[in-house]
Request: fold
Amino acid sequence: MADGSARHSAALVLGALTDVYERGWQPQDVLHVTGRHFSDVKAGLIASLLLAHAYRVTPLAWAPPAWSDQIRAMALAEPTADAAARRYAGSAAEHGRPGCGSRERPGGGAGHPSLPGIGSAADRFSAGGLVLLWQSLPDWPHLCPPPSLWSPHAASAGPAEGTPAADSGPRAVDPKVPARIRGLLAKAESTDFPHEAEALTAKAQELITRHAVDTALLHRDTDADADGFAVSARRIHLNNPYLREKVTLLSVIGRVNTVRTVWSKRLAIATVIGTEDALEQVALLYTSLLVQCTRAMQARSPGAVGPGRTAAFRRSFLVGFATRIGQRLAESHRQATRDAAADAGVCDGALVPVLRAQDDAVRKEAQRLFPHSRPTHAGKVDPVGWCAGTDAAETATITAGGRRIPGRVPLPGA
Reply:
């Protein structure tokens, strides 16, 4: 009886997960939302379920790169969960455990393994709770093909139908640049020395800016229309607190880089839409600047006040920081474009048609994916926090060699 219960629970959970994937969700999306709902459950338990599904149910060898990268990242982050999932997948195969849509072999029930994370009282969540949660999730736009459409041909063909291939069109001169940028920013976020972090972030920004402008220069000799740009989308998962304000920072960074941001408050997930290079730049810049903002915000938060006062200050700090960062990034973008155009021997306006066509392509794809989205606005702000955040944005490093973009005189420390 216990074995039959385990099989029933496994079928329910794996089937519900298959269904939610078919409705546009991806592994890291499900991990994020499930973790927010079952906040008292360790991430490893949830990851073990998703990994077990990946190894037992899906043809992972045929998965699109974006999907397999998420599974790989999950496995690296939770090695114990990965080991449990692999044991389950191997044992289930030995005992005839069916994948979704397959038939169980006669006599395969004896010694049936338990699905990782389900069935123990210590796990603190049930198969029924997971199934109800996943069934309640809304349908989402498919950012890559769901598992039912995978095949050896589809795995090599690229994104889902209707989405241009990410590797079509002109390529940047140096494909190793994104990896170098990630390495620099990872070091910047891990160091305890502010000056070292600024130098690393500055070098990363220099590479980001030049990489983007070089790519645009490669486009200028092609037909500059919206159909010539390969636009894709990815989801960025945000965590409490101050979600709306963090989205504001992400949105202003995206706007400068011709990336549109669509935010789901209920799910705490933002979808960013743009060219693949631009999406990578925005994700890297957002992570780095959020680290800088958080450090500055904690250092300047008022002491000896109530929690409500501190929260209002910090929310407003983030908004002020985001507003000024957007202005500085725009100034940096204009200057870098002028410098790169001069180096290439073309006039300042040579890239205008290309950049306009790129913006049109991004706008069309955002409208296709989210036809019913509407703009949102920040709420009330605390003036002291807003000014302190604006001041902190003046000293955040976003340019090459630590050189700061000219702007207004920084305000006195608030």
User: Anything to note?
Assistant: Strands lie at 231-237, 260-264, 269-275.
